Each structure stands twice: as C-alpha cells, then as structure tokens.
Amino acid sequence: MEDTGRQKKSFVGYEYKEIIAESSHVSFLLDGYECFGWELDEKRTESKGSKNPSYPKKEVLHLKRNRKIMNKMELTRLQRNFEACVKEIEALEKSKTSVATICALIVGIIGTAFMAGSVFAVTAQPPYIILSIVLAVPAFIGWTVPFFLYRRVAEKQTEKFTPLIEQKYDEIYEICEKGNKLLY
C-alpha cells in the first residue's frame, strides 16, 4: 500500500446551531456559548463576521458542538438559562428608552392637538385671534418639552434598570462558570 501522507482522524459527529446576534454582542455570546461546549464553525464563511442583509447590524454565528459531549443534558439546561438571561437583558435594555419614548410622544401629540385647535380658531369665521394665541402657547410648549422630557425619563429609567442588568450579567457569569466546570 501507498502512504498518502494522511493521518487517520477519528470521526466526530457534531450538532450545529445558528444564532443571529447584534454586532455589539457577538463576542459576549461567543464567550458564553463556549462554556457550553459550542465552538465557532470555521468552515462557514458567514461566521467570520459577514453581515446578513435581512438583519442590519446583525451577524449570523454558526456554532458546532460534539454530539457525544459529556454532561450534555446539564450543559443544555445551563445553556437555556443563559439564553433566557440574555433575552431578559435585551428586554431591560429596551425598556430603558421605551417609557421615555411613550412619554415624549404623548406630550408631542397633545401639543399637536393644541396647535390644531389654534389653527381652527384662526381660520374660523370670524377668526378668534385671542383663542388662537392662547392655544398656540401650550402647543409650542408641547413641541419643545418632549426632547427634555425624553432625556430626563431615559436617565431615570437607566438608573432604575442598570442594577437589574448588572444582576443578570452576574447570573450569566455564574451559569457560564458552572458550564465551563462541566466541560473540563
């Protein structure tokens, strides 16, 4: 027989996972999933950071894991806890600005309603100029206040949710530590 120069390589069966993540969270997620036995699939071209056109600012991560990994059930359970914590962090991050946005929109809409009343008052027959001016003042206030209101409410919400987010990150680190101990 001829020696082809190839070494015998033992067969490893893999399971695969695809994750769509924001570009800013890719490193964090890769570090987390490595604690559960997943590794980046180098054979997939998208895994090297190419953007997915259907999701702007998002990347597709292709991961693989040995199917015969030890403690697979416990690692899967820890992985689900990890994924739930990541989703909770995303929801908390969004809630920092959602209340501020709603408050600013409500005040802006009320200001617009006053402006509509002002316009109707000035275009009426006969025109009610005094009423138009009286309605225009809160209208302009309703159009300028939302910017400052948004910033103030967003700051308060950030102060409120930052400790909760930090607690979730601590929980994630504990979960990853447990998963890493099961691997090695």
Q: How many strand elements?
A: 3
Classify the beta-strand content into a percent band: 5-15%
**Count of separate DSSP helical elements:** 3
Largest sheet: 3 strands, antiparallel
Q: What would you call the quaternary organization?
A: single chain
* Distance N to C terminus: 40 Å
CA gyration radius, whole angstroms: 28 Å
Give unreliable regions as ranges. Answer: none
Overall 3D shape: elongated
Class derived from helix and strand content: mainly alpha
Structural write-up:
The protein is mostly helical and 184 residues long. The chain is 63% helix and 11% strand. The chain is built from three helices and three strands. It has a three-stranded antiparallel beta sheet, with helices on one face. The chain starts with 13 loop residues before the first strand and ends with a helix. The mean pLDDT is 88.
Task: Write out key terms for the chains shown.
184 residues; 63% helix; single chain
Question: How would you summarize what this structure contains?
Answer:
This protein has 184 residues and is mainly alpha-helical. The chain has helices spanning 26-34, 72-123, 129-183, and strands at 14-22, 39-40, 58-66.
